[in-house]
Amino acid sequence: MILKTEAIVLRIAPFSRTSHVVTWMTQDYGKIATVVKGAVRPKSMFLGQYDQFYSCELLFYKRARNNLHIIKESTPLKTRPSFRQDWRAMGVASYLCDLVNRVSPDNDPYDSLYPVLDESLDMLARHSAEPDLVFWTEIRIMNQLGITPQFASCPACRKPITETSSRIGFSSSRGGILCPSCADDSRQPTSTARYEALKALRYWQTCSELPAPTALILRASDYVDIQAMLGSFMRYHLDMPLYSRQIAIKLLLSSLQNETVN
Fold first, then answer.
1. Are strands 2-14 and 31-36 parallel, antiparallel or unpaired?
2. Residue ranges of the chain with pLDDT lower than 50?
3. Distance CA 28, CA 154 (A)
4. Any bridge partners for residue 11, and if so which?
5. Burial call 193-212: b when 16+ CB within 10 Å, e when fewer
6. What is the pTM of this model?
7. What is the DSSP track for 24-84?
8. Shortest CA distance to 204 belongs to which of 141, 113, 122?
9. Cα(1)–Cα(5) distance, integer angstroms
10. d(Cα 125, Cα 160) in Å, to the nearest integer?
């Protein structure tokens, strides 16, 4: 059976001396893997037709008894060339593709991560890499996976979290921000952050479209707290290492520190 869909390249790996295995996030069939036979031969019909971070129109032969399908045609729709000149943006794009690859089941036609990744990569390609985009995308991905962090009320006692001058507590095991009483009584490890960090998380969680510039004033230390909270939440609930995230966050936070110094 030949199927047609739009797809984003998540990963390219060698299959043989002349062939590739390409992992795609598709618009209609979830995450799939295809063999590209003769991909690296000098006269291959696939030269320039796919690459990391490309969005393509994909035709492939679906194998009923094998999750490794055969590619027929690939036509690039978005090549996102700016990633080749912006190494911070490339680092972030690599992390987002790696995250989607890791959390997506194979051949799940109901997967809804394609539009999230496509929109985030488009914005990343148009603008410089910013922490806001990464954290907004992470929250959207967690929402799609059904593991939404609780930022409006305490998940332990259900009390709403109101503005406070003290630092707020966050527990990955309990699912979000804790009120002062539950944070003090919690036997589980908690981290803390300023209330401004919570306001930013709430703002990003309510944005269904690309986030507009906010009036929030965040310090570099707030971004450090935010990445730590979201990172610990994903590690706890996804139960997987995210080494690519460490690299992307390090690139982003180093740029913030340089801007602060300058």
1. unpaired
2. 260-262
3. 37
4. 23
5. bbbbbbbbbebbbeeeeebe
6. 0.90
7. EEESSS-EEEEEETTTTSTT-TTTTT--TT-EEEEEEEPPSS-SEEEEEEEEEEE--GGGG
8. 141
9. 13
10. 38
